[in-house]
User: Fold this.
Amino acid sequence: MGVSLSDKLVVAISSRALFDFEEENRVFETGDLATYEALQRERLTVPAQPGVAFALIRKLLALNNGARHVEVVILSRSDPISGLRTFSSCREHGLNDVERGVFTRGRSPWAYLKPLNASLFLSANQDDVRSALAAGFPAARVFPESATIAGRNANEIRIAFDGDAVLFSDEAEQIFQHEGLSAFVSHERDNRDLPLAQGPLKPLLEALHRLQKLADANAQMRIRTALVTARSAPAHERAIRTLMAWNIEIDEAMFLGGLDKGPFLREFEPDFFFDDQIRHCESARSVTATGHVAGGVANNAATVTSAS
Assistant:
């Protein structure tokens, strides 16, 4: 019987999201691929320092307590030889369960998400994230400069999600953007019993919910989730009823009615936060590791190029 990842939570992550390759990426962005590769070869024996998503990945892998529930795969625009440094850095920092990788030497790697059955793609490359989201894969662009607070809850994985255009479709967000708050509230009140369509990160929440049941019996690591949304009553009801229809439970829900999310995230202390709007990401990144879900009506087609 062949090896399969179909029953796993699979996180595909770029080398730059996992490790601090910001100096190397600045060389990559000059367009001089030969110089970039030479620099990486010079540093093959120098372990990279942890990057913005490192602490989250380490915690997720801790769920593999006697069974492989979580798989982490490096998915990077770096060249294969530079990939040697990424794998050696994994070993140096104790990420021994990271065994798979795809290195594409400058070509966008997102198409490999399908054979990997990925539940999440984390990358610092905005083009790759947009392409992945457009193709229906859960993805977020990390902010390498984000703060990290993952060490504060050593035995608990805490992940916070925005609602519209992240867990849910951007159906309601479109109404808000085009017709205003009053029309949004009326629409959500009138459709409170109709579940929202799934958003790009619903498969991740679903996978976490399955793992949560297993993790409850694992004294070493537990999972806690939160919905952190600008919705307020009465629009809150449709969000909760949607989760109920999906048979997914969350641990905390914050209906903030437009308040700045940063202070609330500071209290929840998530290992990672996902939002579709840059202004919320900018607020959150000073508190914790943050991923921009660059899809939906709130986002334009601006792109940023990076190594991985």
